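Dear support,

We are seeing what looks like truncated structure output for some complexes. This example has two components. We would appreciate it if you could run it in full and send us the complete token output so we can diff it against ours.
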Amino acid sequence: MSPSNPVLSHHISSQFNEDLQDVHTKFMTMGGLVEQQVANAIHALLDTDENLAIDVQFKDNVVNQYERDIDEGLTLILARRHPAAIDLRMVIAMSKANTDLERIGDEASKIARIAQNLCEEGESPRGYMETRHIGNQVRVMIHDALDAFARLDVDQALKVVMADVDIDREYQSATRTLMTYMIEDPRHIARVINVMWVLRSLERIGDHARNISEQVIYMAKGMDVRHTSIEEIEQKVNQK
Amino acid sequence: MSPSNPVLSHHISSQFNEDLQDVHTKFMTMGGLVEQQVANAIHALLDTDENLAIDVQFKDNVVNQYERDIDEGLTLILARRHPAAIDLRMVIAMSKANTDLERIGDEASKIARIAQNLCEEGESPRGYMETRHIGNQVRVMIHDALDAFARLDVDQALKVVMADVDIDREYQSATRTLMTYMIEDPRHIARVINVMWVLRSLERIGDHARNISEQVIYMAKGMDVRHTSIEEIEQKVNQK
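Here is the complete output from our reference environment:
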């Protein structure tokens, strides 16, 4: 399944290996699904595809079910197998990242709901260029974070953390632009505010991708790098 | 410490008990701090108290440090003590709720940053009545969720979950009110949008309080009630 992941191939107990593999596979599947949900939500918004917007909201149930299944799997591993060292870290990291994946699914669903409303009103509002741009970046971040998770790749995880800093800056700038649109033409306030909520969701998705990447560093290096500046993270990672 | 909490008094191993007590105490202390952060952030906003707004942002570091300490304590318990049954559920629930507490701290910090900006500009914008009202409700929710956690009180946890439904409804209504303010007087768009972000943060805090309460139900009953309607939760809880 994940031949390059060192955690998933070193166990003597084949039953433990199977259990962990099983949850890991579910986690990666959920990740792929969530990535698709975000892509579809943005697509539905920008191309005013109402059916797709409805589909994204509907599929949020599937994401939620994955979250429950994964947590249940992890709890069983803890109860039966008493993992230690890097195995324990993988279980903990997956439990945290699982929450982040579900939240990304939530944000995709919120974007899809707004897309559905905007579809009904027709005509695309201003701010779509910014949405497309930030949306694309955020999708890459989710993909890279999951890839880093699958391969326990600290360098890739670091890249995602850095990308989140860009996103935050671009989100600020896009918000300012939207504010001027509203002041210029107050008739479109309600519509532009909807685009603002979308940007906010995208910014949050970036945060969650960053969180997942921080869990990759925890898993691989045993270091808790949450609430730490990029310079500090780089320094810490290179020390070990 | 928590004489009424059945999980914290039944252990034969006194070392295990001490470890779990220790993390539990930290968790409750963090909870109290976070509750205060939210109260102070709202206070700073409504009474244009800039110093308090700065203090809230500054103290976010303390909240973050608690999050790290608690997770470290929980990991050590998992590695050394191999908790089972309700003990394991308490460790897992505390790990999840820990994340929620930290996010509540984040939202308080965001509110405080906005409060600081608004202080500098002087003059209180419209929408403060809504903020005060929802702010008070959300504070009660955090308090009740933590209280339910400390006493493993499922009924109280259920009450918090129900309160979250009210918050969501009032948030929607307040957002609509703010929208009309902006359309009526576009000169205040920037300021009213800031109040909108505050309301959004409060609504998110309500979600986190609900999440913590769901973990209380998981801890006490072993049931995962996330993504479940209130009717279903009540039914499930009463079945057991």
